[in-house]
């Protein structure tokens, strides 16, 4: 019996061209992009993004969100830094203390059950972050679990890996390295 269904590898790591840009992670900053309307500042994120080196207001262009790619070079660089600066991180709806959907809650409960330290980022706080992450991971839904700097998968993959013991094994190796 042949099938044309693609098989997903849970250790898939998206490949993107290296992006450069003056970006820094600042836990108390706001997200701001030059291609957003000058008066609009996005809500503060747990891992906020600040553009270093403010540009002049004359170089800012007002554009609708449909006119540019969701994953800007600045956002990609920042996501690279955030993902690699934590052994285990979950981009999810809500926080680990207050998940806002059942799938996010399931992943949080799995990680709490295996007793690993992990960070979460609430994707509901920012539309650009939410849409950019879908492009960054090549995964359309949330939560998105990253382990040791690599995209691991969503809720279903985390549940299956937990049931088989693969997740516990990977997390143990990751935390020991």
What's the structural blueprint in terms of helices and strands?
Elements: E1 23-26, E2 48-51, H1 73-84, E3 88-92, H2 102-113, E4 119-122, H3 127-137, E5 144-147, E6 150-153, H4 155-164, H5 166-176
Parallel strand pairs: 3-4
Antiparallel strand pairs: 1-2, 3-5, 5-6
Helix pairs in contact: 2-4
Overview of the molecule:
- This protein is an alpha+beta fold.
- The protein is built from five helices and six strands, in the order E-E-H-E-H-E-H-E-E-H-H.
- The strands form two sheets. Strands 4-3-5-6 form a four-stranded mixed sheet. Strands 1-2 form a two-stranded antiparallel ribbon.
- It is globular and about 40 Å long.
- Residues 1-67 have low confidence and may be disordered.
As residue ranges, the low-confidence spans are 1-67
Structural class: alpha+beta
Number of strands: 6
Given the structure, what is the number of helices? 5
Rg on CA atoms, Å: 17 Å
- Overall average residue pLDDT: 73
Largest sheet: 4 strands, mixed
Estimated helix fraction: 25-40%
What gross morphology would you assign?
globular
Distance between the termini: 42 Å
**Major sheet: order of its strands?**
4-3-5-6
Query: What percent of residues are in strands?
Result: 5-15%
SSE ordering: EEHEHEHEEHH
Structural descriptors:
32% helix; 177 residues; four-stranded mixed sheet; single chain; GRX_PICOT-like; disordered N terminus; alpha+beta
């Amino acid at each position: 019996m042949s099938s044309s269904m693609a098989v997903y590898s849970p250790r898939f790591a998206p490949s993107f061209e290296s992006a450069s840009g003056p970006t820094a992670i600042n836990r108390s900053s706001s997200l701001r992009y030059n291609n957003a309307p000058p008066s609009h500042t996005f809500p503060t994120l747990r891992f906020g993004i600040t553009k270093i080196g403010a540009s002049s207001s004359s170089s800012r262009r007002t554009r609708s969100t449909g006119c540019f790619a969701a994953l800007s070079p600045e956002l990609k660089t920042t996501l690279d830094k955030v993902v690699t600066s934590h052994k285990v991180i979950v981009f999810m709806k809500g926080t680990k203390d207050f998940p806002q959907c059942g799938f996010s809650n399931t992943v949080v409960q799995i990680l709490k059950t295996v007793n690993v330290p992990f960070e979460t980022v609430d994707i509901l706080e920012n539309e650009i972050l939410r849409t950019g992450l879908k492009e960054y991971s090549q995964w359309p839904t949330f939560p998105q679990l990253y382990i040791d700097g690599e995209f691991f998968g969503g809720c279903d993959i985390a549940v299956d890996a937990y049931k088989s013991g693969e997740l516990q094994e990977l997390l143990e190796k990751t935390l020991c390295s």
